[in-house]
Amino acid sequence: MQQLDGRRARGDESRRAVLARAVDIASVNGLEGLTIGRLAAEVSASKSGVAALFGTKEQLQLAAVETARGIFTASVIDPARIQPRGLRRVCALLRSWIDYSAGRVFEGGCFFFAVSAEFDSRPGVVHDAILRAVDERDAFLVSSIGHAVDQGELVGITDTPQLAFELTALIEASNSYSLLRRSAEPYEFARRGIVSRLQAYGADTTVLAKTGFMDPLPG
User: Fold this and answer.
1) Is 29 inside any structural domain?
2) How many domains would you assign to the chain?
3) How far is CA 213 from CA 94, 95, 114, 125, in A?
4) Among 25, 20, 53, 50, which Cα is nearest to 36's?
5) Which of 84, 88, 150, 156 is least surrounded, with the fewest CB atoms within 10 Å of its CB?
6) How confident is the model at residue 73 (pLDDT cuts 50, 70, 90)?
7) What CA–CA distance (Å, rounded) separates 99 from 76?
8) Are 145 and 86 in contact (CB under 8 A)?
9) Are 64 and 42 in contact (CB under 8 A)?
């Protein structure tokens, strides 16, 4: 039994190592550019060995999506959850999201921005897996904005999904333009845009400053 457990542990470790490279490849070349043969060459493994870990290209794609979902959650969602519900959590979420993209957690920028464009009009299980991950992300942002509204920290908002859409669009545009132009400036544009939108709904500038969206207030 211990021998079997050891083999399973080594298999799990190999799978994690291979997937770490797989998500980077997909963020640059798309999920269709992610093949068992190419991945084997990238990690200096045999094609049969990688195939044994995933079976088919589609299963590899699904595993990459799930791995990327976990990385995004750990990099963006979990740090925001540490903050109390309300405006602080909204700001922490958006700040972490910008940092995740600007810091190139994935080699090709935001994994889900890249693969969503690739599979948005292609029905199937991979499309559905991407959609579930994006819906999970969006639902957390909508919910976080809703708590800020309920606590009176954002006022005059009658459509939280609309504001969530606008804030997401700013971050996704900054990701795209930053990659295209090899510049960090688009993230500054996104930051300013987020500040403008939140201030339009009465966001406390002290909170914005403490969460890194504005320069610290004097005094």
Assistant:
1) no
2) 1
3) 9, 7, 26, 38
4) 50
5) 156
6) very high
7) 9
8) no
9) no
